[in-house]
Records
---
Amino acid sequence: MYEQSKKRLLKNTLMLFVRQLLCVLVGFYTTRIVLRQLGVDDFGIYNLVYGLVAMFEVVTGSIPVAISRFITYELGRENLSQVQKILSSSISIEIALGVVLAFAAAVSGAWFIESHMNIAPDKVEAAKIVLMFACASFALRLLIIPLDSLFIAYERMSFYAMKGVFDAFVKLAVALCLLLPIAEKLTLYAMLNTLAVLTTLLICAGYVKIKLPFYKLRPSFDVSIIKDMGAFTGWAFVGNGATIIRDQGLNIMLNLFFGSAVNAARAVSMQVSTVITTFVRNLLVSAQPQITKLYADNNITQMHSVIFVSSKFSFFLTSLAAFPVILQADYLLKIWLVNYPPHAPAFVVLFVLAALIDVVSWPFTIGLFAEGNIKTYEVALFALNVSNLPVSLCALYCGLPPESVYVVHVSIMALVAYCRIRLSAKAYGIDARKYLKNVVSRMVSIVFFALFIPAVLTHFSGFEGVGRFLFCTTLVEVAALTCIWTIGLTPSERKYVACKIAQKCAFVFSK
């Protein structure tokens, strides 16, 4: 049973890995086309207006976690009637939130555009039209959340992955439409993006109707379910709120002590870190339904095993992207931005280290969400994240450089990881010593052989510029893959991966 779960986890993770890789590559190319066709001013207006609407996602940010947890938990108990009630109640919640928040965003956004937004007078009406489409897209995306939660709970990762790739290519098609000789490209782009979201919603609803016909996509209110989900969402909001307070507080603090140039360096570093974190957390989508179902089925031993495997593979996949960035941050920033802000390379390294710690310990958070009693965890998370501010302030008053702020951040992320493991031991009996022995020890070995040794060899190699980058990246990737295969994987995992590679090669060469 455990081997089947592990194989399914590996299969789903690899599927989502391919999906994320395609989405990132297509996304970068799409942004390039859009920027070129809209121009700097219209591209800035579009992002600012959509950013105004995105601010309301603070209210809805913790709802997807709650919906996914409750649906998956009841599915693990094979209580399909309760799953239907949760699905219907979730749809009702999202409709209500969509209407209220979209209206609030439209009213406040229109006021901001007219009174505070610094744009050319002839672009004000276009910005208002973009705002309306942004509000519509926001409301439609909320309706997709319960359906995504259903797909993840049923582990329909092939459809979930294809939907993500479809979204990416539809956005590319929308961007290519801007090549047409049309005068008002800004409003066209906003309208087509809204139609793209609507298309995705209809495809998801159609899939449920065809493949999961026993579920009805009708709104209804179940007071007890909404009350339970509200309590869960409320505590999750505490943790999310702490992250916002931490990030914006540190940003303001850096501005007060060092000026806007350091804020620019932080923004660049955040972008790199967000790509890596989002990439790996999306891969962990495949682990979430298994962990929650196993807890609901009271199969705690196997749940622990899935958490260990998820943590380990999160580290493997993140390290392949993170290690070259850590060692070659300066050169990569030169390629990407040519002239990058001061302190940016150090910030990138520190942000990537924090992201690495976060994604490795995230499977324990999934376990805590599955257990359901998240009050202690969210309060601890709030306290640790907010403590970044006074500690960083003391460091800056002592005359330390801006990098000290994110050295503190990395240290506190390590404490957050420790907190997740300790609370997991209390909540569902995870064996911390076993985790250190079977998982962390392998991670430490890989860091030594695939990060520290290549760093030393690169330093004494004598290469410069492109040669140094290629030498270092090749050395890191070869060392990382070799260590993952020989040290990181167990014999059964190596056998499964080798079998899958052989099958794919046979399929390709048989064509």
Note: The CA atoms of residues 186 and 502 lie 48 Å apart.
---
Amino acid sequence: MSTSSILSSTMTKSPLLAAGEKTQAPGKLTSKDAFQDFVAGTFFKEMFKALRSAEGETPYINGGQAEKMFRSQLDQNMAESMAKTHGAAFSNGLFEQFQHNLDARV
């Protein structure tokens, strides 16, 4: 096996595909997937925001602005991940109603 074929085969294999992710091209979401990402992502982001606002700051160990930025990015990544894996529970019923309303207008 040549070096170029090894490199091309390792570059084309995605770790996401090994984890069972969809094989669609990046940037090409179906309307249902986009709806799920928006609805469930918004729900989970608001849930994390409420969770963070309910906990108080520790007077002894406080990371300041850097910790706030890190927590914000962590919450956003967790919300997006949860929206992709568990978002169908929230969005399927809403998407069906959305499609019904669109079909009724046409």
Note: Residues 30-55+63-106 form one domain.
